[in-house]
């Protein structure tokens, strides 16, 4: 298991800080500049991220020019927190893993920024939107460039904040505000795991830096390592919308579509996978935690896929799919050294094709007056040829059509899954079939069949500024598989995550591939039989099977949360409030009444309340006294 | 030899280290001068005189504190340095100096808030004539004549003096006197609001009665401890505690009762009941001052009392403080969820913060347990107090500028849509709230990090898990306010943000800057806290 041991950054790598600073500066200028920047704000937003992309590319080329064991650099910025042994450096770590993320975040990020110029053209708050997007990119870059868990946590909270601002961006919609709040609350549960994990790490190792922790990780006891692994997994579940913290992602679709593409498909939601892969030095020593990662991944990939089957809202169907695909990545990451590289590979290809499809969905919505109901679509392939063709590339990639990027990456995960254990492999295989089903359904309902458009809707192709990013992303969706040529990505990431020893699989890979393709074909065919050949009703049928109903209700994720956490929580708060009402809130009401001229009554109340406060002090004092004496003298 | 000569020979004049105690003397001197100004200066010139005097006094005391701090001598090996002054009554050591500095800087900021006049149309935000009954002709007349109570400045100075003496006391009696000196002016100040005077007077009375009640516990505790140790002096008590002279019942009872008095002052549950009412009713400037400075002073005294005098009985009081800490975090975080008044919400937030501080306090990592250069619980708590103080003062300062026809618009529903009305004020308040929630790059994060990791290193992991859990709950209600400001539409005609004078603007700016600076570069202040070392004994 490799130890993180970076050299000091020099040459092009000493410009690393600029990769973060550019979008951060963009956000600052746009937020502080106010209305003066309205005219050109969006251009600045695009330019900063594009600049970061160029820098990332230059650094990446520089990295390729180095030997395999000479590809990790650290750039020390300043000492963030220091008090003796209590020390956190604000340093950046650039290694093959961060390098790939940098390219994904700034590359796809720049395309989505560009797309947003067209998509948000008529929004009066476009400048603010770009400010938030830039803020997000900066925070995400901090997350993947951190060389210390505390700095990573900073990025982690930063992307959360930006995501939260962007989900609620259309604040006039109450549903958006609610969704933003939900995302925040659920993510806080994950962050709890993160905070506790980091503190446990500090208490155990005396440091939170990757380099130090990876060096001494094996010295900790199994119990501590397992606890660390599980806490970090909890964090990953929150950020990456994995079961049981999955419920926020579907609601997050309330945000503008470019946000869904950038944050809730391509980058932020994959941060959990990054965390697990980055913490490989912990998981490799904590087999129980690794198993937990596999279980979470397998459950989520099916959970998300099933939800995707029943959604009529195009964005929610895609969100279910995102959840499911991240499940694949989690599963791969849980497989250990055999799977880390494939998790990242799938993460990258997914970043391409899912961003592509989300932006495609945005383009469709743009043409359909922001209608998201697929039952009102149909026959759009003629009206929006570019959107259709690019979307089709994404579609073929996600279902794993041979030759497309998703085919290579998903295939590898299924293969690795079967090698690890049968259940994981079967879950991944089944997921591939369901994916083929719901994506075909989505395709058919949107682009084929009869027109089911609302009155007065005239679908039209989107402007160039929106279609160009679609074309680029479509090309990447098709070609993303080249990263696997000669196992390049496996070798490239080996210095960070280690390399599995080669052994002959029980089933020849080609047989495996044929089985997967067959399952996918079954999925497509089923969708064709059930959706393609029949007429799609304009309103969702209500007399449906119990399974469809469950899938429509997100498999009752919200209901479960409500029953397990919210209601007991509400009751607890309620009881406390009732208890407090006797003293505290009553006084407020009493005071309000006094303003109405009822000072006499008020005085009587007031005495009562001080008495009850004093009583609580007295009881508290007695309890303290008795407790002290009982504990110590008994 | 005559008897007079014998007496003279036996009598030793008490030595009084004037230079060491100069910060205290300056503040008390300014307070007394303020009273004289009130008596002799013409009404028209009093405001300016008093405000300038208070500012100069605090600055002077701050300079004196720095000078004293630089000249502390090492004592008894280890990291402790300082001297016992005033015949053993006052300990001027590293932690004292740090707390003095913190209290003085926060007081300086608060004085500016006290002196704000523009928000109330040219008069102080304190009652024009406190003796006039609310709603009477006399009150209206005081209002039309533009009367002001400039006594608030000397009152505040007395409270500041008490707050400095409290954590530096080295015996129980001094500590009790300091407690009263800091409390009595505050009781009075709480009742002086210009608007909503009934609420204010009610708050003052409640605070006074409950304060007196808890002082009773405190002094009974003193009596019991004296009965056990035969001395009021912390060093002597510490020696008696370590020696276990017998009669532990007295000691344990004494510790419990002293704890009650202390926990009341820091606002820990179940002794917190006064906090929301008083914070809400008191003039907001006083609330800001009280929330920040009293908490700092009371925690300083709590730390000294329990670490120095009762350090040897640590295993006896730890379980009790665990329970109080957990209860405090639960009550503070959970009840804040249902608050509809921003001042009450901040009050519950301050209760929750007391719980977090107690976590650091009880997860006691002592000098003996830590490696060279690591910070102890004491230093972590001191740092947290600084971060908390600045954020809190600024948050209450923001409350003073969000107004409607009835004065400050403290009902949370009035804050909805503030982001549209005034992006700057809403933005600043949002950052302050994020700071209280402990989001990274704000001071709240570094403070919590310091306190929780030292508590964890001290082995108090169940407490830390609880604390992290409830800081998540707490984050929720802070964010609820942000949601309200940004994602909700204004109710009715919406809130207005009054333009304050430069004074309040400075307060908000300083608190805001400190919240960010202590999150981004906490190093210097952490170093200062580490340099404070340990209490001298």
From TrEMBL, chain B:
Q: Which reaction does it catalyse?
A: a quinone + NADH + 5 H(+)(in) = a quinol + NAD(+) + 4 H(+)(out)
Top-level class of the enzyme under EC nomenclature: translocase
Return the Pfam families for the record. Proton_antipo_M (PF00361)
Determine the domain of life of the protein's source: Bacteria
User: What keywords tag this UniProt record?
Assistant: Cell membrane, Membrane, NAD, Oxidoreductase, Quinone, Translocase, Transmembrane, Transmembrane helix, Transport
Q: Which PANTHER family match?
A: NADH DEHYDROGENASE (PTHR22773)
What's its job?
NDH-1 shuttles electrons from NADH, via FMN and iron-sulfur (Fe-S) centers, to quinones in the respiratory chain. The immediate electron acceptor for the enzyme in this species is believed to be a menaquinone. Couples the redox reaction to proton translocation (for every two electrons transferred, four hydrogen ions are translocated across the cytoplasmic membrane), and thus conserves the redox energy in a proton gradient.
Record-stated family: Belongs to the complex I subunit 2 family.
Protein name, entry field: NADH-quinone oxidoreductase subunit N
Q: Which gene encodes it?
A: nuoN
